[in-house]
Specification:
single chain; 11 helices; 5-stranded parallel β-sheet; 7-stranded mixed β-sheet; globular; Rossmann fold
Length: 439
Amino acid sequence: MKICYRVLQARWPGAQEWRNWGFVYRKGDDPSADIALHHNLDEFQDVVQRVLLRMRALSPPLEEAEVILEGIGDLYRFDGTVCEHIADGSESALVNAIEAKVLALEPMKRPDAAEEDIRIFTGRANRPLAQAVAHQLGAPLSALTTRSFPDSEVYVTIDEVVRKTDVFIIQPCTAPVNEHLMELLLIVDVLRRSSASQITAIIPYYPYARQERMAQGREAVSARVVATMLETIGVDRVIYIDIHSEATQGFFTLPVDRLQAYSILADYFRDKPYLQDAVIVSPDVGRARLAGLYAEALGIPMVLMHKRRQPGGRVETTHVVGDVKDKIPILIDDIIASGSVLTQIPELLKQGARPEVHVAITHPVLLPSALKRLEAEWLAELVVTDTVLVPPPKQHPKLRILSVAPMLAYAIRGIHRGTSISPLWQPDAPRMLGFSTES
């Protein structure tokens, strides 16, 4: 089959660097054939829908596809080149191969014979991460068709044989959360009906993780509801990274692997020249254990902040326990959504900390308010992982993204072979296991 395609690019407002976010393509040599859109910009539903509507209404040839981007600003463009890809296989398999090219992934190494029956599937939430994991294992991303009907129902079908194979689904449930969660459940269902031998759901960002208890009467414990759905639909194992509450593991009766990203984030700081003058800062008591792991891994002191939530979502810092005078703070947390954790930093500066603050957070949800708060002069950088896809329009110049793909590939390999994955919990795991974490 022959596919012709053009790469779609986007950028942070005002930035010069363009990043690939998808492509449009047509099958065969007929220039009048309809074009299709493949993208990883799910969170920007308004942009995607406008592109799709214009594409359907205008039906432009591939060479004149620029018209589908008219009216959505100067942050999106085509790179201008029409490329070709010719190979055997289903359309979804060829789209996966083109996507790997668009993401500029390194050529795959040949898989180990013991891993040839591993299948890596993904939904639409974070395809670049799934592609990176599959390449780490030396296997192409498995063929899967996922699309939405006009009434927003999701349709899923598997385009290859999975009978008696070990399958892993990589799907963080990020915005739009409910759509990605439903997509995950449907993928599990179709794999179970296709006689896969074992189904492991890898959910780097677990949905509803902050609703794990009843903080007041008549509240849903939503994290438990998600666990019940996953077990009921037929998942055999669950993997997640840095969940908000460790007690969520108890909601499951099946095996759960709770991976931690602190070793990857700490390794980023390990050779920095300012480390000898730095302190790890926990934003609240709940993150004190995580901050302790960072402090132990880096061999530097830890400082604890006490905070009180005010009406309207405001956060007030009441105490700072520990010495920050003339120190460079490295503030840690598990999730940055609205960016309220950044509003605590001025209190550190009042206590004498240097106005050169580094922030390390696993899951970069990054709502608009958080992106705005990154403009603060005292913020040097925000270091995150790719558990959550950060699309190009959200890639702030102060953002540093590290990849969890090597860690997930190591976990998949160990689970498939039946060997221990406990080295992943070591403070120096990236260096001990030879991870390359630059995304």
